[in-house]
Give the backbone structure.
Amino acid sequence: MSDAIKELKEKLLYKRVKTYEVMSEADMAASDEYAKGYMAFLDGGKTERECVSYAITMVEKEGYREYKIGDKIEVGGKYYYNNRGRAIYIFRIGTENVEEGIRISASHIDSPRLDLKPHPLYEDNGIGYLKTHYYGGVKKYQWVATPLALHGTVVKADGTSVDIIIGEDDNDPVFYISDLLPHLAKDQMAKNAREVIPGEKLNLMAGSIPLPEAGGDGVKLALMKLLNEKYGIVEADFISAELEVVPAFKAREIGLDRSLVGAYGHDDRVCSYPAITALLESEGSAHTVMAILADKEEVGSGGNSGMKSGIFIDIIDEIAKNLGANVNAVKANSKCLSADVNAAYDPCYPEVHEKNNACTLNGGVVLTKYTGSGGKGSTNDANAEFVGFVRAIFDKEGIVWQTGELGKVDQGGGGTVAVYISEKNIDVVDLGVPVLSMHAPYECIAKTDLYMTHKAFLAFNVN
Ligand code: MN
Ligand code: MN
């Protein structure tokens, strides 16, 4: 190849880069260290509520204090708004005029799981069960014959509440959903994967020894007695409870080189954690900066803790009012990263990806211009100008980044919170970490992508 052609190639053609090709040894070590903090976050936060508590501990250490609607907001102030313990808005007021806009990173902390029903407890043929209703996009067959933990909050009749975590401590028992043995699965194995495990068979085994002389429902009574002794709850209290069944696994390094991380709930805690760390690290920024950890994304962002809730705009409204700014100007000039994951190219399933436009593990933080399905249905397709703005920042700051598309055209699709934020007249683009086996009980990410995501959010906050 002549030098002229080489030069032309260099100048005109896009080149994919891997993180490890450009990261220094010190960068790689920093990335490894950063992943440790993230893995602790994952183990400490397996539900929305636990993630909110964990986030509060992180930011209070750095001087953030709880804000309630109506409180005073001042330049330089560091606040968090705790929305019903299930979502959190963490924000710092910058020195520049807030009408210049807010830099927002919006992630979600709900993950696919099984929720207990309001009347979960029953017994059948000597086994005590807890009935569940699955939450979000799960492949139901992945949740059977595997150790499960129960996490949540029960509000009792007197209004007091009790938090429950069973199945995380090594000395705890776990829960279990049975599956058919292959020997008797002739009919099951012939079924469509969607129907292999019907939703009403996702029943959690909780015990098998009845109370003596109880007559009927002896196992159920025995289980309720154990719960009452430990947590002071009665059966009716399940009605006012949020009890979530999650995999009883801890986050672990994957691979001999420890370059990957396996865990439950990467989607989307793998973006929530960097949103917090980038907010804390961007202390010197003149911009007003906000990190959002939202609930309900996996079920359409509804409810009063989802991103469609009016509380988001109420908070922006309160910020503007307190600083004597025009709220419409604040929104018009605000910029948001919808901090969410994308599907990493899976070499074992190349047929679902279009490889020129798929993101890869160790390809860096992934920018997703549009999501949606069936011809970009229900997408926020970020405008070219905003994508150009973000791209310029990343290139300037040496961020290793790539683009991604959620699978081949017409292969499926999905959405994020981006569309609900863009509706408010705020520029938004999706940015996050490539994930393998998304929505599985144990998902996989690369440490360097996680680290680049932190650096990307940080660059966005300070530029
Ligand atoms: Mn997500
Ligand atoms: Mn998801």
